[in-house]
Write a structure and sequence with these properties.
Elements (H helix, E strand, L loop, with lengths): L1 E3 L8 E9 L3 H10 L6 E4 L8 H4 L4 E5 L23 E2 L26 H10 L27 E8 L5 H11 L3 E5 L2 E7 L6 E7 L5 E11 L5 H8 L23 E16 L4 E3 L6 E8 L1 H7 L4 E6 L3 H8 L5 H13 L1 H13 L3 E12 L8 E8 L5 E7 L3 H20 L3 E5 L13 E2 L30 E3 L14 H22 L3
Parallel strand pairs: 1-7, 2-3, 2-10, 3-7, 4-17, 10-20
Antiparallel strand pairs: 5-6, 6-13, 8-9, 9-10, 11-15, 11-18, 11-19, 12-13, 13-14, 14-15, 16-17
Helix pairs in contact: 1-4, 1-11, 3-11, 7-8
Length: 518
């Protein structure tokens, strides 16, 4: 069932068993899992079925710390959330990402990667992916072999591409036709009301931009509004617990993590590589689109005490990429782009030819783009500021910070890749990161992946939610999405977000069935 929240009479109290706040990948996955269950569920979405400027403006906030894109530019506040513009990049985290690593502060999850396998397998279908297979062996073909490294320090993995699945469009009809799940659009959570000791959430106050306000009372509440809004909603709900819900140890909003991305190196091959214009291909049976990339093996990470690292290779030169991103008003970035264009003139010609030919061409150089794990840092955080939005909620300040280790780890990983290329006789690697400079280049990019701000840890002094995503100190308030990530790995987060949402849905279904609370 679908209802426009703006039609609900003022001060109405809607009753349900489960209330999910946020209609993105996590929220829609949860709601779909509740369809057909012997209890009622509400999915509350702030926006409508299409973008709206006024609703989108609720995301605006302040940026301090490292440069970061506008907070309202890359999150989407309508049904489907950020799946309305994601690239479909899908892969699970690696086993080592879940381990407590002595050289990575605050590392370690409450469970290992194998525990998530059955949830990943179900998430594959939700994201409209192929088989749950990310080892390169079943995908390799004679016409497109992996790079033949001579040691196990550098390995090849693959990622799969979702169509990409736009969750709002893909699953809207299922939600509309459901008899026990009701989707409310254009309603915004502005307060979580609790008992006097803040141990139990009793109801939430919902506001529409047009002025209507009403309540939703439920047995269980789940925040699924993303890595920035989840902590914001906990922090603004401070009538009983002055520091905000779940924030008794000043952890809500801390440990903000991103995936730093850099066009950091170029491979000069010993022999030309016969390849298509892009290193994508389809599985011959089910047509799943995949792409290979390089990682450091777990053994190498342990030996070198490094964080998770991945690198995608592209036959397009950095110069060709620079042609597409020149910004004449940005003098500093312009100088970097012009340098890349001048250095790579020959590769620009090859790249342009390959785009015209759209067939197989000989490629002499490969550009290397890294996406890496940011180590957990409590000083990297989101917090509230005095300025308020149209609904009266404090806006967010993002203070994104990385440590010298983050950059040093990227450069050391590239050195290892270069060593292994040379050892195997494959070519040489030109690295474009200064060895002794801990500052970040102006070409630093981000994956727009907001993680860690309500991190998972069994100890309430180390995390905001427990192993089942329940807010510490509260009996019935849960959090879904990448804000619960203990560490980020280097994998794109959507598949993990969906897998954890499925896991949480199973947990709540079990509780409801066994407790007689239906």
């Amino acid at each position: 069932m679908l209802i426009d929240a703006r039609t609900i009479p003022r001060d109405t109290v809607l009753q349900t068993e489960v209330c999910v706040v946020g209609g993105g990948a996590a929220g829609i996955t949860l709601a779909r899992e509740f369809i057909g269950q012997p209890f009622r569920a509400i999915l509350l979405e702030s926006g409508g079925l299409s973008p709206d400027v006024q609703t989108q403006s609720l995301y605006k906030g302040q940026i301090v710390g490292l440069p970061y894109p506008s907070l309202s530019a890359f999150r989407l506040r309508y049904l489907g959330g950020c799946t309305n513009h994601w690239g479909g990049y899908s892969q699970p985290l690696d086993d080592i990402d879940f381990e407590t690593r002595g050289w990575i502060p605050y590392s370690g999850w409450p469970f290992d990667n194998a525990h998530l396998t059955r949830f990943y397998e179900r998430a594959q279908s939700v994201c409209q992916l192929g088989p749950y297979a990310y080892d390169p062996d079943p995908w390799e073909r004679p016409e497109s072999p992996r790079l033949p490294f001579s040691s196990d320090r550098v390995a090849t993995k693959i990622l799969q591409f979702s169509p990409p699945t736009k969750f709002g469009k893909a699953y809207q009809q299922e939600l509309v036709q459901s008899k026990n799940v009701t989707l409310y659009l254009n309603g915004n959570l502005i307060e979580i009301e609790t008992t006097r000791n803040a141990a139990t959430a009793t109801r939430i106050r919902v506001a529409c931009l047009e002025g209507t306000q009403f309540w939703i009372a439920a047995k269980f509440f789940i925040l699924a509004t993303g890595g920035i809004e989840n902590p914001r909603l906990l922090l603004v709900s401070n009538k009983v617990q002055k520091s905000g819900l779940g924030n008794q140890n000043d952890l809500v909003g801390r440990f903000f993590m991103e995936h730093p991305e850099l066009d950091a190196a170029t491979i000069v091959l010993s022999s030309p590589l016969q390849t298509s214009p892009r290193l994508y291909r389809r599985h011959p049976v089910d047509q799943t689109i995949i792409r290979g990339f390089l990682i450091l093996s777990a053994n190498c990470q342990r030996a070198e005490k490094l964080s998770s690292f991945s690198a995608t290779l592209s036959p397009e030169s950095k110069g060709l990429q620079a042609l597409g991103r020149v910004r004449w008003g940005d003098r500093q970035n312009l100088l970097h782009d012009v340098r890349d264009i001048l250095v790579d003139l020959d590769d620009i010609a090859v790249g342009a030819y390959s785009r015209l030919l759209r067939g197989f061409v000989a490629v002499r150089t490969l550009s290397v783009k890294t996406q890496t794990e940011q180590i957990p840092n409590p000083d990297s955080r989101v917090s509230l500021i005095a300025e308020r939005d149209a609904l009266g909620l404090n806006r967010i300040q993002l203070d994104w910070r990385m440590t010298p280790f983050d950059k040093q780890a990227i450069r050391r990983a590239l050195v290892i890749v270069g060593q292994e290329l040379g050892r195997a006789g494959l070519g040489r690697l030109r690295i474009d990161l200064d060895e002794d400079d801990n500052s970040w280049p102006p070409t630093l990019q981000v994956g727009h992946h907001h993680m860690g701000t309500t991190r998972m840890h069994p100890n309430p002094k180390m995390g905001v939610v427990d192993a089942n995503c329940r807010v510490h100190g509260m009996s019935n308030l849960f959090v879904a999405g990448s804000s619960v990530f203990s560490t980020s790995g280097s994998a794109n987060p959507t598949l993990m977000i969906v897998a954890l949402a499925i896991r949480l849905s199973d947990h709540l279904k079990t509780i409801l069935r066994s407790s007689g609370r239906l």
